[in-house]
Write a structure and sequence with these properties.
mainly alpha
Length: about 230
Protein backbone atom coordinates (compact mmCIF):
# COMPACT_ATOMS: atom_id res chain seq x y z
CA UNK A 1 0.00 0.00 0.00
CA UNK A 2 1.59 3.24 -1.17
CA UNK A 3 0.88 6.48 -3.06
CA UNK A 4 -1.83 7.71 -0.71
CA UNK A 5 -3.54 10.81 -2.09
CA UNK A 6 -6.05 11.60 0.66
CA UNK A 7 -8.89 10.32 2.79
CA UNK A 8 -11.95 8.57 1.40
CA UNK A 9 -14.95 6.60 2.64
CA UNK A 10 -15.20 4.54 -0.55
CA UNK A 11 -13.74 1.44 1.12
CA UNK A 12 -16.37 1.61 3.86
CA UNK A 13 -19.06 1.74 1.17
CA UNK A 14 -17.49 -1.27 -0.53
CA UNK A 15 -17.35 -3.07 2.81
CA UNK A 16 -21.07 -2.62 3.45
CA UNK A 17 -21.82 -3.86 -0.08
CA UNK A 18 -19.76 -7.03 0.48
CA UNK A 19 -22.55 -9.29 1.75
CA UNK A 20 -20.36 -12.36 2.15
CA UNK A 21 -17.84 -10.58 4.36
CA UNK A 22 -20.60 -9.07 6.51
CA UNK A 23 -22.12 -12.54 7.00
CA UNK A 24 -18.70 -13.83 8.11
CA UNK A 25 -18.39 -10.95 10.58
CA UNK A 26 -21.86 -11.78 11.91
CA UNK A 27 -20.90 -15.46 12.21
CA UNK A 28 -17.78 -14.50 14.16
CA UNK A 29 -19.72 -12.23 16.54
CA UNK A 30 -22.41 -14.87 17.14
CA UNK A 31 -19.80 -17.57 17.81
CA UNK A 32 -17.86 -15.28 20.16
CA UNK A 33 -20.91 -14.15 22.14
CA UNK A 34 -22.50 -17.60 22.41
CA UNK A 35 -19.26 -19.36 23.34
CA UNK A 36 -18.39 -16.67 25.89
CA UNK A 37 -21.85 -16.85 27.47
CA UNK A 38 -22.03 -20.65 27.65
CA UNK A 39 -18.42 -21.04 28.80
CA UNK A 40 -18.97 -18.39 31.49
CA UNK A 41 -21.96 -20.28 32.89
CA UNK A 42 -20.11 -23.61 32.85
CA UNK A 43 -16.89 -22.03 34.11
CA UNK A 44 -18.60 -20.43 37.13
CA UNK A 45 -20.07 -23.75 38.26
CA UNK A 46 -16.75 -25.45 37.50
CA UNK A 47 -14.86 -22.98 39.68
CA UNK A 48 -17.38 -23.48 42.50
CA UNK A 49 -16.97 -27.27 42.18
CA UNK A 50 -13.16 -27.01 42.31
CA UNK A 51 -13.36 -24.76 45.37
CA UNK A 52 -15.61 -27.25 47.16
CA UNK A 53 -13.07 -30.09 46.78
CA UNK A 54 -11.60 -30.82 50.20
CA UNK A 55 -8.37 -32.65 49.48
CA UNK A 56 -5.49 -30.47 48.31
CA UNK A 57 -4.15 -33.19 46.02
CA UNK A 58 -7.54 -33.68 44.35
CA UNK A 59 -7.97 -29.92 43.95
CA UNK A 60 -4.53 -29.59 42.31
CA UNK A 61 -5.35 -32.51 40.02
CA UNK A 62 -8.57 -30.80 38.89
CA UNK A 63 -6.73 -27.51 38.33
CA UNK A 64 -4.10 -29.31 36.25
CA UNK A 65 -6.85 -30.97 34.21
CA UNK A 66 -8.50 -27.56 33.74
CA UNK A 67 -5.23 -26.08 32.44
CA UNK A 68 -4.66 -28.74 29.76
CA UNK A 69 -6.32 -26.74 26.97
CA UNK A 70 -4.54 -23.55 28.07
CA UNK A 71 -0.99 -24.93 27.95
CA UNK A 72 -1.55 -27.09 24.85
CA UNK A 73 -0.53 -25.60 21.48
CA UNK A 74 -3.47 -24.30 19.44
CA UNK A 75 -2.53 -26.44 16.45
CA UNK A 76 -2.68 -29.60 18.57
CA UNK A 77 -6.05 -28.55 20.01
CA UNK A 78 -7.46 -27.80 16.55
CA UNK A 79 -6.23 -31.10 15.09
CA UNK A 80 -7.58 -33.01 18.09
CA UNK A 81 -11.01 -31.44 17.74
CA UNK A 82 -10.99 -32.18 14.01
CA UNK A 83 -10.30 -35.87 14.70
CA UNK A 84 -12.94 -35.93 17.47
CA UNK A 85 -15.68 -34.33 15.37
CA UNK A 86 -14.88 -36.61 12.44
CA UNK A 87 -15.07 -39.73 14.64
CA UNK A 88 -18.30 -38.63 16.36
CA UNK A 89 -19.90 -37.60 13.08
CA UNK A 90 -20.40 -33.90 13.79
CA UNK A 91 -20.44 -31.95 10.54
CA UNK A 92 -17.80 -29.24 10.37
CA UNK A 93 -19.39 -25.81 10.46
CA UNK A 94 -21.18 -23.60 12.96
CA UNK A 95 -21.63 -26.20 15.71
CA UNK A 96 -18.10 -27.61 15.49
CA UNK A 97 -16.60 -24.11 15.80
CA UNK A 98 -18.97 -23.23 18.66
CA UNK A 99 -18.19 -26.41 20.62
CA UNK A 100 -14.44 -26.01 20.21
CA UNK A 101 -14.55 -22.35 21.28
CA UNK A 102 -16.62 -23.25 24.34
CA UNK A 103 -14.12 -25.97 25.23
CA UNK A 104 -11.02 -23.75 25.22
CA UNK A 105 -12.87 -20.82 26.84
CA UNK A 106 -14.10 -22.70 29.92
CA UNK A 107 -10.62 -23.01 31.53
CA UNK A 108 -10.08 -19.27 31.04
CA UNK A 109 -13.32 -18.47 32.88
CA UNK A 110 -12.41 -20.87 35.69
CA UNK A 111 -9.06 -19.14 36.18
CA UNK A 112 -10.77 -15.74 36.27
CA UNK A 113 -13.49 -16.74 38.75
CA UNK A 114 -11.57 -19.07 41.07
CA UNK A 115 -9.37 -16.38 42.72
CA UNK A 116 -12.47 -14.40 43.73
CA UNK A 117 -13.98 -17.56 45.21
CA UNK A 118 -10.80 -18.38 47.09
CA UNK A 119 -10.61 -14.94 48.70
CA UNK A 120 -14.23 -15.10 49.87
CA UNK A 121 -14.52 -16.11 53.50
CA UNK A 122 -16.56 -19.30 54.11
CA UNK A 123 -18.12 -17.58 57.13
CA UNK A 124 -20.26 -15.52 54.73
CA UNK A 125 -21.99 -18.68 53.52
CA UNK A 126 -22.25 -20.08 57.05
CA UNK A 127 -23.85 -16.86 58.29
CA UNK A 128 -26.37 -16.92 55.44
CA UNK A 129 -27.33 -20.53 56.23
CA UNK A 130 -27.64 -19.73 59.93
CA UNK A 131 -30.09 -16.98 59.01
CA UNK A 132 -32.25 -19.49 57.13
CA UNK A 133 -31.04 -19.00 53.55
CA UNK A 134 -31.51 -21.92 51.18
CA UNK A 135 -28.72 -23.27 48.99
CA UNK A 136 -30.02 -21.22 46.05
CA UNK A 137 -30.21 -18.07 48.18
CA UNK A 138 -26.62 -18.58 49.29
CA UNK A 139 -25.53 -18.92 45.67
CA UNK A 140 -27.63 -16.09 44.20
CA UNK A 141 -27.40 -13.55 47.04
CA UNK A 142 -23.98 -14.23 48.58
CA UNK A 143 -21.61 -16.05 46.21
CA UNK A 144 -22.76 -14.61 42.87
CA UNK A 145 -22.59 -10.91 43.87
CA UNK A 146 -19.16 -11.43 45.41
CA UNK A 147 -17.64 -13.06 42.32
CA UNK A 148 -19.34 -10.76 39.78
CA UNK A 149 -16.07 -8.95 38.85
CA UNK A 150 -14.45 -12.32 38.11
CA UNK A 151 -17.45 -13.37 36.04
CA UNK A 152 -17.26 -10.21 33.92
CA UNK A 153 -13.50 -10.65 33.52
CA UNK A 154 -13.95 -14.27 32.46
CA UNK A 155 -16.71 -13.39 30.00
CA UNK A 156 -14.70 -10.67 28.28
CA UNK A 157 -11.55 -12.81 28.22
CA UNK A 158 -13.51 -15.68 26.65
CA UNK A 159 -15.08 -13.25 24.17
CA UNK A 160 -11.64 -11.92 23.21
CA UNK A 161 -10.08 -15.37 22.83
CA UNK A 162 -12.97 -16.62 20.71
CA UNK A 163 -13.02 -13.55 18.48
CA UNK A 164 -9.24 -13.66 18.03
CA UNK A 165 -8.81 -17.40 17.52
CA UNK A 166 -7.41 -18.63 14.23
CA UNK A 167 -5.54 -21.92 14.68
CA UNK A 168 -8.41 -23.93 16.20
CA UNK A 169 -11.03 -22.36 13.92
CA UNK A 170 -8.90 -23.14 10.87
CA UNK A 171 -9.18 -26.87 11.59
CA UNK A 172 -12.87 -27.07 12.52
CA UNK A 173 -14.51 -24.77 9.95
CA UNK A 174 -16.19 -26.50 7.04
CA UNK A 175 -17.39 -25.58 3.59
CA UNK A 176 -19.92 -22.74 3.61
CA UNK A 177 -18.94 -21.46 7.05
CA UNK A 178 -15.97 -19.31 8.03
CA UNK A 179 -14.83 -16.95 10.77
CA UNK A 180 -13.18 -13.60 10.28
CA UNK A 181 -9.67 -14.72 11.20
CA UNK A 182 -9.80 -17.64 8.75
CA UNK A 183 -11.24 -15.39 6.02
CA UNK A 184 -8.54 -12.74 6.50
CA UNK A 185 -5.89 -15.47 6.29
CA UNK A 186 -7.30 -16.73 2.99
CA UNK A 187 -7.57 -13.17 1.64
CA UNK A 188 -3.98 -12.39 2.64
CA UNK A 189 -2.75 -15.17 0.37
CA UNK A 190 -4.41 -13.42 -2.60
CA UNK A 191 -3.71 -9.83 -1.53
CA UNK A 192 -5.74 -7.91 1.03
CA UNK A 193 -8.17 -5.29 -0.22
CA UNK A 194 -8.51 -2.01 1.65
CA UNK A 195 -12.04 -2.88 2.72
CA UNK A 196 -10.36 -5.21 5.24
CA UNK A 197 -8.63 -2.12 6.67
CA UNK A 198 -12.01 -0.43 6.93
CA UNK A 199 -13.41 -3.48 8.70
CA UNK A 200 -10.43 -3.52 11.07
CA UNK A 201 -11.10 0.10 11.97
CA UNK A 202 -14.75 -0.61 12.78
CA UNK A 203 -13.80 -3.66 14.86
CA UNK A 204 -11.20 -1.60 16.72
CA UNK A 205 -13.84 1.01 17.58
CA UNK A 206 -16.24 -1.76 18.66
CA UNK A 207 -13.54 -3.24 20.90
CA UNK A 208 -12.85 0.16 22.45
CA UNK A 209 -16.58 0.53 23.21
CA UNK A 210 -16.49 -2.86 24.97
CA UNK A 211 -13.45 -1.82 27.02
CA UNK A 212 -15.05 1.49 28.02
CA UNK A 213 -18.31 -0.29 28.86
CA UNK A 214 -16.46 -2.85 31.00
CA UNK A 215 -14.62 -0.02 32.79
CA UNK A 216 -17.84 1.77 33.70
CA UNK A 217 -19.44 -1.50 34.84
CA UNK A 218 -16.52 -2.22 37.18
CA UNK A 219 -16.52 1.35 38.47
CA UNK A 220 -20.23 1.19 39.20
CA UNK A 221 -19.82 -2.08 41.10
CA UNK A 222 -17.07 -0.67 43.33
CA UNK A 223 -18.11 0.49 46.80
CA UNK A 224 -18.34 4.25 47.18
CA UNK A 225 -16.07 4.23 50.22
CA UNK A 226 -18.30 6.72 52.06
CA UNK A 227 -18.43 6.16 55.78
CA UNK A 228 -20.87 7.27 58.41
CA UNK A 229 -19.65 10.25 60.33
CA UNK A 230 -20.14 9.99 64.07
Amino acid sequence: MHDFEGFTLDWYKELFHDTRLLIIVLNTLVIALLSALISTIIGVFGAIAIRSIRGKRKKNAMLSLNNVLIVSPDVIIGASFLILFTMVGIKLGFYSVLLSHIAFSIPIVVLMVLPKLMEMSPTLEDAARDLGASQWDVFSKVILPYITPGIFAGFFMALTYSFDDFAVSFFVTGNGFSTLSVEIYSLARRGISLNINALSTLLFLFTMLLVVGYYFITQRNKPSGLGVKK
